[in-house]
């Protein structure tokens, strides 16, 4: 079996007994029932994912920023030059990006993975080079990736998840860097949810009205050229791979692999913004149970992100109108996820603390 096949075969859904135990435990803690709102659901979710109640504290966290370039950049879908991808990789490695500041704030390690940057990068500490191609082909003219490339990028992500967990990470956070990747994200969201290009496409780094209209047209053309009519429910693995290869980026495929790798190891993965959300749709089409191991860190300002999260049934923890990527929104959610789980370990029960219960 290939590493992708092995990973898909190893993914299990949430454990129902751990979910039931975690719910019952929440209700015995010294707080009114449900008083921790969404955080109670997060703790229960992590219990199901870990098949243990209480689940392990999800720390330390490790952020992986998957970087790649996009052939569709040639269609004028972003005002930023393609070199910004490699320049920002250098910035991450030097510790100068927002993701580095947020990672320091929450005690997360940062790994940068070149899965498809359109240039050779000098070796550096913290850089993993697993380059599948020098960027994708233009998704508006045909498939962005070959079948071989999409599997190689998925397996690059699986390998990174396995290495980080092997080094002691107990929570993974997705990150991305790729100029023009919000166009590929919108196309993936349409390809996996059936939403229209105009609903799923947004302003990315902040494009003007004219560029936004062009982006919508490019996404629509990509779906037509690649034969991506409405996705049928219960899509085969082969069709999910075809759709991901047709309009995804190398970083989307690697992030999908990273999610699948985390799920196969029963380690929770916090999703960042629209790039992660669209990659998670591909991961869910390949292995629906993988979603049980995901937490939506935040909801980005990109309109397709809400559509992706709704399709996945995930509720974002943080909503701050972020639209940066890099893993920034996922990192901000990490302390909330830890706090939700810590409650299960440390808060007294009505019995243990001698606190009277609500009168009937
Ligand atoms: O994470 C998000 O939701 C998000 C929303 C808008 C932009 N980005 C980042 O901006 C870059 C892509 O934007 P664009 O306009 O070039 O498609 C890429 O590096 C992403 O990490 C990220
Ligand atoms: C400067 C810059 C930083 C980024 N980080 C993630 N995407 C980005 C896009 C740009 C343009």
What would you say this structure looks like, in words?
It is a single chain. The protein has 360 residues and is of the alpha/beta class. Helices cover 51% and strands 9% of the residues. The protein is built from 15 helices and 6 strands. The chain has a 6-stranded parallel sheet with strand order 3-2-1-4-5-6, sandwiched between helices. Helix 7 packs parallel to helix 12. It is globular and about 65 Å long. The N and C termini lie far apart (58 Å). The structure holds nicotinate mononucleotide and 5,6-dimethylbenzimidazole. Residues 80, 84, 88, 177, 205, 324-326 line the site of 5,6-dimethylbenzimidazole (DMD). Belongs to the CobT family. Pfam families: DBI_PRT. Catalyzes the synthesis of alpha-ribazole-5'-phosphate from nicotinate mononucleotide (NAMN) and 5,6-dimethylbenzimidazole (DMB). Keywords: Cobalamin biosynthesis, Glycosyltransferase, Transferase.
Name its key features.
360 residues, alpha/beta, binds nicotinate mononucleotide, binds 5,6-dimethylbenzimidazole
Instruction: Report the major sheet.
Output: 6 strands, parallel
In the predicted model, the low-confidence regions spanning at least 5 consecutive residues are: none
Radius of gyration: 20 Å
Percent range of helical residues: 40-55%
Count the E strands. 6
Encode the helix/strand succession as letters. Answer: HHHEHHEEHEHHHHHEHEHHH
N-to-C CA distance: 58 Å
Strand content: 5-15%
Helix count, per DSSP?
A: 15
Listed once per kind, the bound small molecules are: nicotinate mononucleotide, 5,6-dimethylbenzimidazole
The best one-word shape is globular
Order of the strands making up the biggest sheet: 3-2-1-4-5-6
Residue-averaged pLDDT, rounded? 98
Going by helix content, strand content and strand pairing, the class is alpha/beta
Protein name: Nicotinate-nucleotide--dimethylbenzimidazole phosphoribosyltransferase
Catalytic activity: 5,6-dimethylbenzimidazole + nicotinate beta-D-ribonucleotide = alpha-ribazole 5'-phosphate + nicotinate + H(+)
Organism: Planomonospora alba
Active site: 326 (proton acceptor)
